[in-house]
Specification:
CATH topology: Carbamate kinase
Largest sheet: 9 strands, mixed
Order of helices and strands: EHHEHHEEHEHEEEEHHEHE
Number of helices: 9
Structural class: alpha/beta
Shape: globular
Strand content: 15-25%
């Protein structure tokens, strides 16, 4: 195990599995088992989940919903996903607590870095819901912020591709995968790793970013163990 404390970022869409939207029970169980396996090694595990499988703030504007209102709706979607993952983790035998930028009694206490670290050190998986708590920020930005707040060794971004490519590998057969990059490389090559706010937070706080395919069972454990998969950005 090369990382003592991680922040795992999962997209909301990933929880939908092949359904396209909503929450897949099979995918939820698969993720919970992988996360518990890592937590059982003693790796302190924080998680941020998006809400795109339920609602995205930017989608709301197309429906005539005010952007600010829509973003708060998106934050609530992350709370629903967090509750679903917490339930799956607890059923698997893991200790898990939710902290939220939007405190919702009795579901989640208010997010604070001090409380998050206390829970992590006590052996809990800590899911940090509600994004940043403010509109106009993505859950990628929320993940970068939380990684900085809890002093995570790495921000792990679980995706459906096996790392960062020179182009979209799902659209271009000429796309080349990178094993390692610097933040400057990403900027110069205009690689869309995360949104610029999230990327800047990682860069300025010297947070290592590791992008990998979460949908391959066992990959999360391999990343934490130090196996050379995915793409590392330092």
């Amino acid at each position: 195990m090369i990382y003592k404390r991680i922040l795992l970022k999962l997209s909301g869409e990933s929880l939908a599995g092949t359904n396209g939207n909503g929450i897949s029970a099979d995918k939820l169980l698969e993720y919970a088992e992988q996360i518990k396996a890592v937590a059982d090694t003693g790796c302190q595990t924080g998680i941020v989940i998006g809400g795109g499988n339920i609602f995205r703030g930017v989608q709301g504007t197309a429906l005539g919903i005010d952007r600010i209102q829509g973003d708060y709706m998106g934050m609530m979607a992350t709370v629903i996903n967090s509750m679903a993952l917490q339930n799956a983790l607890q059923k698997s035998g893991a200790k898990c607590e939710i902290l939220s930028a939007l405190p919702i009694d009795p579901i989640a206490c208010k997010m604070s870095s001090r409380r998050a670290v206390e829970l992590l050190e006590a052996g809990n998986v800590v899911i940090m819901a509600g994004g940043t708590g403010s509109p106009f920020f993505t859950t990628d930005s929320g993940a970068a912020l939380r990684a900085a707040e809890i002093h995570a060794d790495v921000l792990l971004k679980g995706t459906r591709v096996d790392g960062i490519y020179s182009a979209d590998p799902e659209k271009s057969t000429a796309a080349v995968k990178f094993d390692t990059l610097t933040f400057d490389d990403c900027l110069q090559k205009n690689l869309r790793v995360m949104d610029m706010t999230a990327f800047t937070l990682c860069h300025e706080n010297s947070i290592t970013l590791h992008v990998f395919n979460m949908d391959v069972v066992g990959n999360l454990q391999k990343v934490v163990a130090g196996e050379n998969i995915g793409t590392v950005v330092k």
